[in-house]
Amino acid sequence: MEKRGNFKTKRRKEGFVILLVIIPCILVLGMAAMFVAGISGQYTGVNSKNNSAGGDQIAYNDQVDCSGVANVPSKYMSWVKDAASKYLGGDDALLIALVQNESGWDPHAKNISSSTHAVGLGQFQPGSARGWPEFVGGDDKHGMVWPTGKVYDGMPPADDTRFDAKRSIYAAAHYLSSTAKLHNGDYFMGYEKNYHGGSYGATARKKMEEYYAKVRKGCTVLFGAADGNATGVVRVDTRYITFRSADIRMMPQAAQDFNAMAEDFNRISGRKLDIVSMFRSRAQQISMCGTVVNGRCSRSSEVAPPGKSMHEAGLAVDIGLATSGRARSSQGLTRAQYEQFKAAASRHRFAVNNGSGGRYGVSESWHFDYIGLKDKYWYGPTLANAIKSANGSPSNAS
To answer: Is there a single domain that holds both residue 239 and residue 217?
Structure first.
């Protein structure tokens, strides 16, 4: 009996030792699995960061990759686009480059070497921040009323509204716009002399210009196109058209129907269709528009603000007319040929700009939108209204 009792005691001890070995192994394996899941983007508990005073959690892997220049959390992009549309003529790259230069897109960035404590995405100092409704609350006079917020002197606590990513993005765009007005619309000069200022203003400007060029070249996710290299557009058939410098590309379904329309028109009229404009990159639209004042382009009332043109979406074409106006062309359509073309266009899901009423020679009578998509292609919030408009009543400018 004594031996048997000793045997049981020995077994219990051995079992206890085995448990001591197995349990830590299980814990280690579990932690390892969590770590692997975390770095693969499946475990956001480790891979996230609070990026606003309100406590929003945004995973680091949920980013918009701007050609290795700026990794912008994708949640911010709708704010970037809207703020740029309100204040910077729709030039998203300007705002991205500015914030990259100021804070590297870290909403908690603090300039601890500065006695004025510039913080947040836009690196606003307390004094300047209090001058903007985005931080302290009020009507920004551009369609938004901001809730009351606090801005502190010294090293600020977490509820300082400069740490709020949305407020900081809109304020940065608003401020940069105001500085540009002091320098004949030159955003980079405004940034150097006023936004950044100080003895390092010129150096900061040079860096921002470098970021801007890189973002403009590589961040195709911003526009659906970047400087002429669109995502998804294809070249149309050239057998039934003439063109000079126009970028003759459209989205695939639109291009297919355009080709059929051009052939149809050639059959009934015996002539080729002269193309004045088709696809435009965001940079081209900005160049044609100039600055945006009260929602209108400074260089031409016949040009839509950047982000609101169907040409940017690869869903529009301007044809040449044998009359006066922006689409005047030596190879343009006569009045009779124009009526033939309108009939062909309607058969292939293209509609003339509604502002012209389809009257030959009237402003924008040369502009035709493709209306056969019903939001199949999506170019983000800045083109949402334009695409929706093209499915019903196209906008009055191109």
So the answer is: no
User: Which of 52, 69, 380 has its CA nearest to residue 214?
Assistant: 69
Q: Are residue 194 and residue 272 in the same domain, yes or no?
A: no
Nearest CA to 247 among 279, 225, 273? 279
Give me the residues paired with residue 66 across strands.
70
Same domain, 332 and 361: yes
Separation of CA 51 from chain center: 20
- Is residue 264, in this structure, part of any structural domain at all? yes
My answer on whether 185 and 320 are in the same domain is no
Residues 235 and 321 in one domain: yes
Residue 397 is predicted with a pLDDT of: 63
Q: Estimate to the nearest angstrom the gap between the alpha carbon of 157 and the chain centroid.
A: 31
Confidence class of residue 324 from pLDDT cuts 50, 70 and 90? low
| Last residue in a domain, options 222, 239, 260 | 222
Q: Is the pTM of this model over 0.85?
A: no
Long-range contacts of 100-103 (CB under 8 A, 24+ apart): 100/69, 100/70, 100/211, 100/215, 101/204, 101/207, 101/208, 101/211, 102/172, 102/196
Amino acid identity at 51: N
State the Cα–Cα distance between residues 336 and 262, nearest whole angstrom: 16
Same domain? 102 vs 203: yes
Flag whether 170 is in a domain. Answer: yes
CB 257 within 8 A of CB 297: no
Q: What local confidence, expressed as pLDDT, does residue 371 receive? A: 82
Tokens of 147: 């809730």
- My answer on whether 288 and 218 are in the same domain is no
Measured between alpha carbons, how far is 96 from 173 in angstroms, rounded to an integer?
10
- Predicted pLDDT at 60: 27
